Amino acid sequence: MLQIGKFNTLQVVKTVDFGVYLDGGEKGEILLPRKFLPEQPCVEGDELSVFVYYDSEDRLIATTRKPYVQVGEFARLQVKSVTKVGAFLDWGVEAKDLLVPFREQNGEMQQGRYYVVYVYLDFATGRIVASAKLNKFLDNVPPEYTPNQQVDILVVQETQLGFKVIINNLHWGMVYHNEIFRPISIGEHLQAYIKQVREDERIDVSLQPSGYENRIDPLSERILQRLEEVGGRLPLSDKSPADEIARYFQCSKKSFKKAIGALYKARRIVIGEGEIRKS
């Protein structure tokens, strides 16, 4: 069965000068324009993996290019324009922006800003649309995870405790600040691991598997070790000269800044004026 808004494997049924037509089953033949064809010539009977969506004239069309998000998924997307019907987002699909109706917005969206949204097929209209009202699409099934189970997460929001994340496009979860040992960003997709499912079904997530000994990168480890050796304070900061940083740690200033930034975010150090200290 054809899945609109997702990748499908479809058979070539006809070749024309401007592309090929694919077998869309009950939906009929679907055009894959010439510019999206693979380098190797296609003939009738070939099967192609294509993303199927409605074009600007509401005709089904196919592309081999991967969009930023598919139906049934969450992603952080940028608003390209706002009109009288809603906001239109860039989702990586040529000549067809993604609509977020006003009723699906949490406050009016603004052009140029980024928002985390859920993409779905509106069965009333048959169109692919998005919603910023995330809660209604999450935690609708019991969280049947096991400790240390590998999952995919989307980073959604930073709080005092850590980062709220979406797990496997199904549930809310939390990654705590004191368990983050590298910079992470809103909208980032990461591989993570279930730490525990609480009695209230809230889910704790870790970026490292349980028992993972190397919890921080080698440079961060060396910085912490050096702080231990010298009594918890080093006369270095992100503003120190590159040659001075290299003399201490044999690394670039960029690498040093990244390492202490991760340690600061994990609340392992304090960055002061011209120095770093153990927290």
UniProtKB/TrEMBL annotation:
Residues 4-64, 71-131 form the Conserved virulence factor B first S1 domain. Belongs to the CvfB family. Residues 221-277 form the Conserved virulence factor B-like winged helix domain. It comes from Barnesiella viscericola. The lineage of its organism: Bacteria, Pseudomonadati, Bacteroidota, Bacteroidia, Bacteroidales. This is GntR family transcriptional regulator. It holds the Pfam family S1_2.
